[in-house]
Amino acid sequence: MTETFLGMPATAPPGVGHLRGDEPFPVAARRALGDAQLRRNVGHATSTIRARSAAVIGEVPDWPQLRAAARAIKTDTMARLPELLEQLEAAVGRAGGTVHWAADAVEANRIVTDLVRAAGADRVMKVKSMATQEIGLNEALEAAGIEPVETDLAELIVQLGDDRPSHILVPAIHRNRAEIREIFLRTMPGVDPALTDEPAALAAAARRHLRETFLSTRVAVSGANFAVAETGTLAVVESEGNGRMCLTLPETLITVMGIEKVVPTWRDLEVFLQLLPRASTGERMNPYTSMWTGVTPGDGPQAFHLVLLDNGRSAVLADPVGREALHCIRCSACLNVCPVYERTGGHAYGSVYPGPIGAVLSPQLTGVADNASLPYASSLCGACYDACPVMIDIPSILVHLRGQAPHPRGEAAAMAAAAYTMDHPALYAAAQRGAKLSRLAGPRGRGLPPPLSGWTASRDLPEPPPQTFRQWWADR
């Protein structure tokens, strides 16, 4: 029996999963900015989703009230998370399922691998799941001699292309149709050499490829969009039907779910199922909404296992400001409006969670020092907060995390000197007068020498005003 307790503020372990990048964001972003095709692909996709989403959101007269209700539900859930998770565990158990508690990615991967082995399987089919991407489950299964098969079309593209997801909702958003066709021709067994890059033809090729997997694989692994503590019900929303196949055909179903995905009651789903599809895919409702409660004899999987994953979430919960990031319902609305994400794509963030929500969630899951550049991957324009269906104040969390990030000694010394100057009126007045000398640095400060040029490399140095406020006041 595992001694795992909610509230252990341990961060996600290094060396496993996909929460840490190999290089800081500025380095990766600079390289991404030089990829014109990537910028075209991401820009076209995000602008299309934005337009569709805005249209269907505009149809809902009580959208602000729905957002406020979702925020209230999430706030209440985080305040009662231990109680609700225990309620969920009991409800799942009564319905014939088994709940496993995983403190981190290592433990979650071990649990899933052991369950697949116990089922006597050497292959699993997977429903699109951010949690399993987070913990590196595919790599863990492959190391154990178990073949994972992604059944979501975008995830399949990423898997066949030996690639990484770059978007929460559309993992292959950085690929265009011609690139997808090339991946299918190169890696998909039995594909028609005359395959075109028409979406219908690509989808049909993927469907033929996956049909045998659906009918012959005895174990499936899924994530969950929501779990209802009251009833023990799990919910997955998707657009292709692959999730429905994975959730109904296999003998064993294993669901890996972050502990923050729980909601208190069945009625609470009413709010989120109105918000999620409109904010994410620009649809009034998802084409496939699958819900299951435990095991039903003779119908669907006959063994159900729910793995409740912490992996740093308790550390996030321990921060009164940062815990708001756990409200996220993975709709990706913040990514689709972010000017930084639109120009760099998702890989620059180094984490499976890219964009604005990744910039606040990943550093908290790993410890800010391990992702110190991500809180700065934002212009603080506030578009993410306006778009978020659960009203996460991402800009405020970004500023909060910037305060926790390690700073160079030179920067700390400069800030200390600035604080001392501002605390002494005579020095402050002299500094204001001296600010006019900044004109010598040239337009926008481009003439500053190192190390000061590091600041102006990505920012414009403001032009000093003709006179200081003190001078203006004295003149009047």
Automatic annotation (TrEMBL):
Q: Which GO terms describe its molecular function?
A: 4 iron, 4 sulfur cluster binding; metal ion binding
Q: Which UniProt keywords are listed?
A: 4Fe-4S, Electron transport, Iron, Iron-sulfur, Metal-binding, Repeat, Transport
Q: Where is this region: Disordered?
A: 440-468
Looking at the record, the residues that make up the LUD domain are 85-295
Please list which residues make up the signal peptide.
Answer: none
Kindly give the Gene3D superfamilies that the UniProt entry links to this protein: Alpha-helical ferredoxin (1.10.1060.10), NagB/RpiA/CoA transferase-like (3.40.50.10420)
Q: Which Pfam families match?
A: Fer4_8 (PF13183), LUD_dom (PF02589), LutB_C (PF11870)
- Tell me the GO BP annotations in alphabetical order: lactate metabolic process
List the InterPro entries hit by this protein, alphabetically. 4Fe4S_Fe-S-bd, 4Fe4S_Fe_S_CS, FTHF_cligase-like_sf, Helical_ferredxn, LUD_dom, LutB/LldF, LutB_C, NagB/RpiA_transferase-like
Q: Where is the 4Fe-4S ferredoxin-type domain?
A: 325-391
Lactate utilization protein B C-terminal domain location: 404-476
Listed name of the protein:
(4Fe-4S) protein
